[in-house]
What we know:
alpha/beta, Aspartate Aminotransferase, domain 2, Aspartate Aminotransferase, domain 1, 2 domains, 12 helices, about 15% strand, binds pyridoxal-5'-phosphate
Amino acid sequence: MEFIDLQAQYRAYRPEIDAAIRSVLEASRYINGPQVIDLEKRLAEFVGSAHGIGFSSGTDSLLAVLMAWDIGPGDEVITTPFTFIATAEAIALLGAKPVFVDIEPDTLTLDPALIEAAITPHTKAILPVSLFGHCADFDAINAIAERHGLPCLEDACQSLGSSYHGRRSGALSTASAVSFFPSKPLGCYGDGGMVFTSDDALMERLRVLREHGQTMRYHHAVLGINGRLDTLQAAILLAKLPHFEAELATRQQQADHYCAGLRACDMIRLPTMRSECVSVFSQFTIRISQRDAVQRRLAEEGVPTAIHYPIALHQQPVFSAMLHHQEQDFPVAAQAAREVLSLPMHAFLTRDQQDHVIEAVIKAVRSA
Length: 368
Ligand SMILES: *Cc1c(COP(=O)(O)O)cnc(C)c1O
């Protein structure tokens, strides 16, 4: 059993993917080929945003939006300490300060009730993460952002395909950043990402920043990056896209099946979402005490698991040294880091495999 079975997916879509790759090789337009523009249009339509701007990764997508907002030394950006490093890394790389705000104990997303106390005259943006596919509480967060005149960037690297109040993740705030890292719900065969926004001026700045700040060939108006999405990756994503809706439906059924089976054991805390959110379940993450012992037992039973994430960002050496945080500064995040365990989750996981996982998890939890 694989934690995420990329080979099973490739076997299922192989003719389309191979043909897409071959057509790029034959045309040899590896940079800014027509597939990039096509993908930007289709995905913008999918999420319900005016513009999609392809980037070389989710991290570069986050970075470019913050650059477009002129965020730099002396500025602060409010974000969650319970996420992948890239969220806060993008802020710190620009010389700005990531200001952590603790998460909600049930959904593990940024707690809107704690945001306003963290806003200072230096605050330049809010960066919530739709973690594991569960959207952050954007109604509450957008209201705070508006009240303070701040833009809001959704880290949607785990939530393409999720929705909130019937709107897709990616179109819930001023801008969003999506990742096509292979293990994400819509993954390419390397690194890739995209920004979505309905702000025309932001879209134009992002296109300039993505190509070394050039407005015309070899005319560089601002400092930019090499941040383009490869044509080859765009073509692979276009080949996978027609299957994405069906995969979303499968993932929902799989999440329901996990919940139904694991509910039998009251020592397991199931993923919780706000009722207005439909999750893509980029991770199916349970919470248990004795997590490390349970993970070891599952490995012995041939059940691969992962920990997203074992260390909250305020406790990561890079940030604890920079920001002088203590573990108890963000107690909800610190506790989540001790309890979370992600189970195998991908659209090609079979019922039998899921039943094996459910049985093994319950057994491991009861005996740990
Ligand atoms: C994967 C991920 C990123 C980074 O995406 P890359 O494409 O790997 O750069 C950023 N934030 C979150 C929450 C992620 O899960």
